[in-house]
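so the lab meeting is tmrw and i was supposed to have these ready like two days ago... anyway. pasting both below. for each one the top line is the aa sequence and the line under it is the C-alpha cells. i havent really looked at them closely yet so no promises
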Amino acid sequence: MERTAQNTVVGFIGTGVMGKSMAGHLMNKGYKLHVYSRTKEKAESLVAQGAEWHQTPSSLAPLCDVIITMVGYPHDVEEVSLGEQGVIPHAKPGTIVIDMTTSSPSLAKRIEAEALKRGILALDAPVSGGDVGAREARLSIMVGGSKEAFDQALPVLEAMGTQIVHQGPAGSGQFTKMCNQIAIASNMMGVCEALIYAQKAGLDPSTVLKSIQSGAAGSFSLSNLAPRMLNGDYAPGFYVKHFIKDMQIALDSAKEMKLELPGLAQARALYEQLAQMGEEDSGTQALFKVYQQQL
C-alpha cells in the first residue's frame, strides 16, 4: 500500500540541523507527525506546529505507520532502532522503518533482518544536500532495502527530496552515501587549496570563484561552501564531527574490501586536525581554517 498523507502517521526521531526541516516538510504535506529527540528543545517548533512529542522512541513506535530516524552516529541508530526502548521491538507489523542517518552498511543489513522477523519493513536511506537541501526539500536520497518497502515509502520520501534512487538491497543506500562522502572529502581539500592559493597569489578569491565555479571545477562545495569560507561563516550545515564519522565508516568499509583510498585518508587526517583545533561542532567548510594557518 502506498503511504500517503491521508493514510499514514509518521514518527520522526532526531530533529537536529537537517531533521527539523525534513520533519517540517512532512507536516506541510499533511502527514500527522510524532517526534522524539534527546533534546526536547530541538523539537519545540515542530510541536508548536502540531507534532506530538514523545519521551521515548518506544512510546512513539506503535502509533506510527512509517518511522524515520535521523540521528548522529551508528551507535545512536542501533539504540533507537534495536535497543530496549527502540522502535523495532515496539512497532506494529507492517510498519516501515527508514533510517536516514549516514551509518554503517552492515548495521543497515542487521536492522532489516531484525525488522523482518517482526513483520516490519526497513530501508536505509541516507541523504545528501546538507542544511540547504533539507530546508528546500531537494535532498538526494539514496535507498537500500526491498523494492516493496521502497515503493510504499516513496511518497513519504518525496516530501523531503527530489533525487530519490533505489540502489539495491539493504545496505546499498549506505554504500552509496559512502561514495558521496568519498567524493566530497577530496573535493573539500581542493576547494580550500584553490582559495588559499588565490589569496597567496594576491587575487580576490570571490572574483576567482566567478570564473571557476561554473566551469569544469564546479561543485556544490565550490558554489555553496566556498563563499561561506571567505565570509568566515562556519555555522554547521553538516558537522565536522559527523563528517569525520562518515569518513571513518568509509575507510573501515574500504579496508574490508582490501581497497586503498589515499585521498580520503588525507582528508580524514586534516579534519582530525581541525577537530583538535576545537572545531568539531563547526560546519565542514571550517576545513579552510587549517589551510589559513599558512597565511
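ok protien two:
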Amino acid sequence: MLQLKNVRVLTLATILAALAIVMGFFKLPISQILELRFASHVIAIAGSLLGPVVAMMVGVISDIGGFFIKPTGPFFPGFTISAALTGLIYGYFLYKKPFSLKRIIMAQVVYTIAISALLNTIWLATLYQLPFYETFIARLITSAIQLPIHIIILTLLLKGIERLNLFQYIIEK
C-alpha cells in the first residue's frame, strides 16, 4: 500500500488503466459469447511492475471506465471482480520476480482457467441465462486455443519492459 504514495506509481497505474480501457475496445469476436481480448495484457503489465494490489485497482478502473466510455452491454459487477482478480493473479506470479517463461506460462494458465474460462463463463451464464456447461466447454476450447497466443504476446511485452529496466526507473528514483 506504500506504493500508492509514490507519484510515479500512481501515474503509471493511471496510464495503464487508460491503456487497458483502450485495449478493451479492441477485440476479435468469434461468436456472441466468444471473443479474443487484449486488455488483460495491460493488467498483467501492471501486475508485473506495480504489484497485485495496484494491478487489481488498474483492473477495476479499466473495467468500470470502459463501461462508462463505451458500454457493450449492461454493467455487471462480476466482470469487475474478474478484472480485479486478473491483477491479483498476474501480480502474484510476476511482481518483483526475475523474468521467467515458466512464471509467465503459470500466470497465463491460471488466468485462462480461473478467470477467462470459468469465472467469466459463470458471469455470462448468469447475465444472459445461458446453459453453463455448453458455454463453459465452448469457452474452454477457445481459451485453450488462445493460450499460446497470449503467452507469446505477454512474453514479448514483459521481455521488452525488462530490457527497458522500467521497474527500477519507476520505483527507485
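from a quick look at the 2nd one: The longest helix spans residues 132-164. DSSP finds seven helices and two strands in the chain. will dig more after coffe
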